[in-house]
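Problem statement: downstream parser choked on a complex file, so we are re-checking the raw output for the alpha-D-galactopyranose run. The parser issue turned out to be on our end (a line-ending mismatch), but while we're here, posting the original submission so the record is complete.
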Amino acid sequence: MMEIDFVRSRFIKHFDGKTGNVYASPGRINLIGEHTDYNGGFVFPGAVDKGIMAEMRANGTEDTVMAYAIDLKDRVDFHLNDPAGPRASWARYIYGIALEMKKLGVPVKGFNIAFAGDVPLGAGMSSSAAMESCFACGLNDIFGDNKVCQWDMALAGQATEHNYCGVNCGIMDQFASVFGKAGCLMRLDCRSREFEYFPFKPDGYRLVLLDSVVKHQLAGSPYNDRRNSCENVVKHIQAKHPEGKFETLRDCTWEQLDEVRAEVGEEDYKRARFVLGEKDRVLAVCDALNEGDYEKVGELMYQTHEGLSKDYEVSCEELDFLNDIAKECGVTGSRIMGGGFGGCTINLVRNDLYRQFIATAKQKFNEKYGHEPKVYDVVIGDGSRKLC
Ligand code: GLA
């Protein structure tokens, strides 16, 4: 985690010399359950020890926000009452979450904010959810007497993506960032919103991310397209079965999917096929974890990669290459993590293979793409909180 003093010194320097309160929220990993959240399925994320830290303070104005992005050295001022909002994409997260918190009854007024992050951008580790939940936590504290509950803050973050950033994401990232707990993964049922903390200490194994450094960008992207395909399949199944209630792919069976195969076309069919399989895999991983069967967990991770690559088509050459190296090195499990189109693979590696795997991956990737992948050892950390 970053130092508070680092953020504080910038906050003091860029505004009026006064200090505010400091908040932090993490990025996330996800062991399994990809693209299932907006399909009413299960996900299995955990927060990481990297994220966003922000210092914030009410500035006494009605609606002027003065914002400084420390890492980008970029300052943007805007008005909450301006219907267009700021242009800079990072500032839109602040504008969006402020308006969403207002909708929840928080009387947000003008404020100053400076923030920095150590969660890599565009690596599929949810730097954007970390921003949303960090700013939500701050606004809730400064203007809202902390009356907004954790779920509503997570949902406000998701609504920010939908309404101001152009990404029709599910709830996994914001959920993980708000609710994270050190040492625990969380199994969330995205339909009922019930969840369970799962202490995760795989004896003899570790989790490591390999970042392809191919920037993933979800806004205006094929991400929304994937979601539309899933919704289209549900619509067709519902039309065939007016007696039933089909809200998401969670409600659909393999037989029902097969019935609409010809009408929806091969592309949508394959995408829905991936989602149905992934839904079952999350539950299978839970069973395997309960039995301490990490080899089974790993096998399921490889299946997810295969599905994300061939059926859901959210992989890229570099990620498939990293996955192949993992396989060749005998790594227990490996797959694309997060939305896809770049970013990281998540790897479940036996301790005795770790060094060899990392060295081989660096060398082979470098030979092919002219740079090494970045390596992040996963430490599962806490969710959104006030630091001081
Ligand atoms: C992104 C979205 C999430 C989820 C994942 C894929 O991270 O923000 O809601 O859909 O992709 O599992």
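For whoever reads this later: Residues 261-290 form the longest helix (30 residues).
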